[in-house]
Amino acid sequence: MDIVSTSFTHLYGTHHGWLLGLLRRRLNDRWDAADLAHDTFIRILNRPLTEADHVGQRSYLATIARGLCIDHWRRRQLEKAWLDSLAQRPQTTQPSPEQRAIIVETLYEVDAMLARLPSKVREAFLLAQLHGLPYKQIATQVGVGERMVKKYMAQALLHCAILEAELDGMLVQ
């Protein structure tokens, strides 16, 4: 065994129970807590811990777990909104469970992409795509010129193209 796997094994053995308890209290679901505890330690494998002391290690683990909880809650909100909209559709047009999972994952990725955009770019993009506003109205509403709206749209569409390529598995991360 090398030093990294030995230190990881020690970290896991020392803090897994504590982290699992923290996540159970936060999520009120032992299965979700177990999943997120697992995901937290997977992140540690990909981004090794530099903290040497016990308190620093727990703080680092809690920070990663907190971010994963936020992602989890955001994903649940999106999934609930999607399922609520599906409930309004006739039973004959319902997607299969596999299609539902793909759609929810895509919605989550789009939401994450939108969250990474600067606020004015995101606002302009949503006004154009969801509300169908012309650039002139968007410019007025966002408080910029029409040329800037065109730049914002180009920036947002570039992010959409990158996301599409990632979802199609064309880009290596």
Q: Report the sheet-strand fraction.
A: under 5%
Mean pLDDT score: 86
Number of domains: 2
Radius of gyration: 21 Å
SSE class: mainly alpha
First-residue to last-residue Cα separation: 28 Å
Helix content: over 70%
Please tell me what the overall shape is. Answer: extended
Figure out the total of helices: 7
InterPro entries: RNA_pol_sigma-70-like, RNA_pol_sigma-70_dom, RNA_pol_sigma70_r2, RNA_pol_sigma70_r4_t2, RNA_pol_sigma_r2, RNA_pol_sigma_r3/r4-like, WH-like_DNA-bd_sf
Domain RNA polymerase sigma-70 region: 11-77
Keywords: Sigma factor, Transcription, Transcription regulation
Protein name: Sigma-70 family RNA polymerase sigma factor
Describe this structure in words.
This protein is an all-alpha fold. It has 2 domains: 3-84, no CATH class; 117-167, Arc Repressor Mutant, subunit A (Orthogonal Bundle), CATH 1.10.10. It is 79% helix and 0% strand. The chain is built from 7 helices and no strands. The protein has helices at 3-27, 30-46, 54-87, 97-116, 119-129, 135-142, 146-167. α5 crosses α7. It is extended, with a radius of gyration of 21 Å. The two termini are 28 Å apart. The mean pLDDT is 86. Residues 11-77 form the RNA polymerase sigma-70 region domain. InterPro entries: RNA_pol_sigma-70-like, RNA_pol_sigma-70_dom, RNA_pol_sigma70_r2, RNA_pol_sigma70_r4_t2, RNA_pol_sigma_r2, RNA_pol_sigma_r3/r4-like, WH-like_DNA-bd_sf. Belongs to the sigma-70 factor family. ECF subfamily. This is Sigma-70 family RNA polymerase sigma factor. It comes from Pseudomonas haemolytica.
